[in-house]
Amino acid sequence: MSKLTVLNPSGPVTGDNHALLPIGWKRGLDVSRPKNDTFLRALLRQPTEYTPVWLMRQAGRYLPEYCETRKRAGSFLQLCKSPAMACEVTLQPLARYDLDAAILFSDILTVPDAMGLGLYFAEGEGPRFERPLREEWEIRNLFAPDPHVELQYVMDAVAEIRRALDGSVPLIGFSGSPWTLACYMVEGGSSDDYRRVKSMAYSRPDLMHHILSVTADAVVKYLNAQIEAGAQAVMVFDSWGGVLSEAAYKEFSLPYLERVVSGLIRERDGERVPSIVFTKGGGLWLESIAGIGSDAVGLDWTMDIGRARQLVGDKVALQGNLDPNVLFAPPEVVAAETRKVIDAFGAHPGHVFNLGHGISQFTPPENVAVMVDTAHEHSRIVRAQG
Amino acid sequence: MSKLTVLNPSGPVTGDNHALLPIGWKRGLDVSRPKNDTFLRALLRQPTEYTPVWLMRQAGRYLPEYCETRKRAGSFLQLCKSPAMACEVTLQPLARYDLDAAILFSDILTVPDAMGLGLYFAEGEGPRFERPLREEWEIRNLFAPDPHVELQYVMDAVAEIRRALDGSVPLIGFSGSPWTLACYMVEGGSSDDYRRVKSMAYSRPDLMHHILSVTADAVVKYLNAQIEAGAQAVMVFDSWGGVLSEAAYKEFSLPYLERVVSGLIRERDGERVPSIVFTKGGGLWLESIAGIGSDAVGLDWTMDIGRARQLVGDKVALQGNLDPNVLFAPPEVVAAETRKVIDAFGAHPGHVFNLGHGISQFTPPENVAVMVDTAHEHSRIVRAQG
Question: Do residues A348 and A314 lie in contact, with contact meaning Cβ atoms separated by under 8 Å?
């Protein structure tokens, strides 16, 4: 299985188990190596030699090297706001695993922070805002921030990561969805029941739509600036869409996802920039989500991906969807469950293997290697048989 | 709208707005009044004059009279374990609202407590077990407790509530599902990610199945004892089934729900005892859930109930499914959203109106009256038109 190379961000990483990877592709930063665009092709439902893999939250606390960099940064927010350190942690999982994409290291709440809400992280409590949206005048004063002023640090990180990746694998940019950002902005942080934001949605839909509308504009600007800075695909995380009723989802989340997707730059330097939309808990509305114009839809682990593929047909690629908790099982179970996801999707084009949710901080790193390598190897076998 | 009568558990409650209710039916404890069996008939998909209503967690902290009784009890557990006080709080919501069923006041964790795990409630932290299941020998020692020994206090409460209800509305008994109880038993309390229990399910499925098997036996005995003590319908709460993947749900939760349902007493004193199964977050698996033999399936608020009815056809009745957060909106919105649920289900038999989840402790009690009365009144109109 994959080796556990210690990260060396200053130079290329050598590989020893790439017999099954496309000729000429090796991990690392060497400019002479051909680009691995498997991930981008899969998102566009073009044939690929194997199923590409990346992991939500792949640069994270389960990696000791990440914890070291974070300690050095002083805080999570300082880590996000330092382009050099954001670049360093973005590359860490690529040094360990045969991943087919990098994802910008950042937080989904950078946009509301740039709107002036004052993001901070209370120890052990997750993100909080100093000035959550509570009064009508605060809501009426909302503005879509200029990504090249308030969010320039993100664009600098994107550019620096692109340079460091040096054409090895594509870089994914991302944002929270309007509804998900609005949840945090109104609640003031995470919530058990989304009482405040749903109260507003049901009591003052006019105010809710105003927040969502301004936030959708902000997200479009933010993602397009990331694309201009070098992001080669973008993903919109609708982490809290699944807490809504079907009717409320179709009023408060889905239309704003659609607005974001339709505002995105579709091509950059002659290359398509694919988009992925992910509503956690959105399995019931999959067909609607597949109709808003994104190239791919992310799936959490609750829906069988084979059934999902039948439902969406040729409309979109699918990304997912192993339960992150499978990674706590012994390696042979990790491999077996990974194969099941690959088998369920089958030999069709348009699958990006991922977890169904961000990787847990408690994950044994060696099990990630088993999963990544199994997904690659088994998907080659399925294609050969398919 | 409904009056807000202060509870007077020692005598009948008078009604002033029952013009639309069946002749002869008034709330209260008077033995001469005919029984309101609308709820039972709806569960069996028999025609009813209106859609019956009850609320998950209807006896709860949103009612000041409940908070008073709980204070008097000293703790939540003492309240559960005192048949007289459990009876008192069970009746409280019926004194305020035109509800069509009472539900036993108890906790879903009484069964693992009776298995010796030591249930306690840490202030502000929810339920915890002193002795969660961690070691194989602990799991191998698990036993299905005799409901007439360790859980006699529950049976006493059921009998006392039946006497106090005096034939006015049916009494619902309930239990947690095997999977949901196992989650608490292995995790030791609530969990964000169900890491421990899923680790066990994936790593040691043999141990997991042993826990589920013993727990399913315990649940069958427990519910049948409730039926013998006087429960006229039973509900199984699978609160955490929705955190599983489709394959894991069909391995670790659904078969044990089926085993519970098939072990239940189906008739008592010549009357059918209907069963309801509720997997929160189970919308994606609705058709499978509808096939395990229960009379009704509970729906959380995420799935449109009209679509759910189309999917299940004539197989089962449906119970649900207003988002509890709607109750934070102004009364006219509460009424409009209630009508939408009634309209979505339509004029077919087999609907029990409920929330899609337990009522929030922060709910304004006056909005509950609006919802209950609107569901009754609007469902009569829909039937008249239908």
Answer: no
Q: How many CB atoms lie within 10 A of CB A120?
A: 16
Chain B nearest-CA residue for A332: B203
Q: How many domains does chain B have?
A: 1
Active site residue B107: yes
A349: its two tokens: 């084009």
Structural contact between residues B64 and B361, judged by C-beta atoms closer than 8 angstroms: no
Beta carbons of A199 and A207 less than 8 angstroms apart: no
Residues of A whose CB is below 8 A from B340: 247
pLDDT digit string (tens) for A39-97? Answer: 999 999 999 999 999 999 999 999 999 999 999 999 999 999 999 999 999 999 999 99
Spatial contact of B325 and B333, defined as CB atoms under 8 Å apart: no
User: What pTM was estimated for this model as a whole?
Assistant: 0.91
Per-residue pLDDT, A123: 77
The confidence score (pLDDT) of residue B8 equals: 36
- Decide if A11 is inside a domain: no
In angstroms, the CA B23 to CA B15 distance is 13
Does the pLDDT of residue A34 top 70, yes or no?
A: no
Q: Length of chain B, please? A: 386
Give the nearest partner residue to B284 out of A198, A203, A302, using CB atoms.
Answer: A302
Question: 3-class DSSP state for residue A40?
Answer: helix
User: Is A151 within the bounds of a domain?
Assistant: yes
Residues facing residue A280 across a β-bridge: none
**Nearest-neighbour CA in chain B from A386: distance (Å):** 23
CA distance B273 to chain A (A): 31
Distance CA A147, CA A217 (A): 11
Q: Whole-angstrom Cα distance, residue A173 to residue B278?
A: 39
What CATH number did the domain enclosing B32 receive? 3.20.20.210
Closest residue of chain B to A355, computed from CA coordinates: B245
Q: Kindly provide the b/e burial profile for residues A349-386, where b requires at least 16 CB atoms within 10 angstroms of the residue's own CB.
A: ebbbbbbbbbbbeebbbebbbbbbbbbbbbbbebbeee
Catalytic site includes residue A61: yes
pLDDT band, residue B38 (cuts 50/70/90): very high
Residue A29 lies in a domain: yes
Q: Which residues of A touch B337 (CB under 8 A)?
A: 202
Residue A372 domain-assigned?
Answer: yes
For A230, the domain range is 18-385
Given 3-state DSSP classes, what are the helix, strand and coil percentages for chain B, each rounded to the nearest 5?
50, 10, 40
ipTM: 0.90
DSSP state of A191: -
**For this structure, is A107 an active site residue?**
yes
Q: Mean pLDDT across the stretch A198-226?
A: 98
- CB neighbours (10 Å) of residue A71? 10
